[in-house]
């Protein structure tokens, strides 16, 4: 999700931050999250400083990709 820089600074948003430097300038790609400020990389979905989020979204996204790409795998 894109959030304009002004909103990032002026609103009380619960944004993911880098566990190394605290920056909110993060890029998520292919199962990992990279900080644009310091270059630290972590696995996507791991937010140790935040409360656990409900499971299922990753499975829903994977199932949607399977349908769109015509894959015959199933996700349980």
Key traits:
single chain; 76 residues; alpha+beta; three-stranded antiparallel sheet; 3 strands
SSE topology sketch:
Blueprint: H1 5-10, E1 26-29, E2 32-35, E3 41-43, H2 57-69
Antiparallel strand pairs: 1-2, 2-3
Describe the structure.
The protein has 76 residues and is an alpha+beta fold. The protein has one domain. It is built from 2 helices and 3 strands. The chain has helices spanning 5-10, 57-69, and strands at residues 26-29, 32-35, 41-43. Strands 1-2-3 form a 3-stranded antiparallel beta sheet, with no helix packed on it. β2 (32-35) and β3 (41-43) form a beta hairpin. The mean pLDDT is 76.
Termini separation (Å)? 26 Å
What's the arrangement of strands in the largest beta sheet?
1-2-3
Q: Report the uncertain regions.
A: none
Based on secondary structure, the structural category is alpha+beta
Dominant shape? elongated
Radius of gyration: 15 Å
Approximate strand percentage: 5-15%
Helix content range: 25-40%
Order of helices and strands: HEEEH
Mean pLDDT comes to 76
- The strand count comes to 3
Continuous helix count: 2
Number of domains: 1
Largest sheet: 3 strands, antiparallel
């Amino acid at each position: 999700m894109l959030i304009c820089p002004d909103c990032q600074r002026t609103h009380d948003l619960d944004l993911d931050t880098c566990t190394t430097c605290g920056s909110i300038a993060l890029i998520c790609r292919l199962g990992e999250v990279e900080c644009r400020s310091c270059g630290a990389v972590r696995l996507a979905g791991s937010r140790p400083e935040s409360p656990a989020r409900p499971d299922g979204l990753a499975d829903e996204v994977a199932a949607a990709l399977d349908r769109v790409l015509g894959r015959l795998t199933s996700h349980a």
